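DUF1145 domain-containing protein, pasting as requested.
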Amino acid sequence: MNFIVKTGKAITLLAWFLMAYNLIMPFDGDIAVILNILFAVTIFMHCFQVIIFHTLFKSLLTLSKSDYFSVFTFGIFSLLKYRSQVIQKLAKSS
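Structure tokens follow.
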């Protein structure tokens, strides 16, 4: 599972880089438009995941700004990490 999460984070970071690069130096043709739309959808979805993260985990973990930034940047792959932290914390307490 750890390999999948790290690989997913690397691919997500590459996707962010490509979409941001497209804003600075647009690619030719329709791919630029597709990447701009994908960038907007990605920002929206990752903001939604930050809201979910805050709602579910604020009472279970001490959260910092870097935790929120990690969830915004890596999405579900960071949520999986925090989920396992909560499961371990609950297992120790019971």
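Note for the archive: The CA atoms of residues 12 and 74 lie 6 Å apart.
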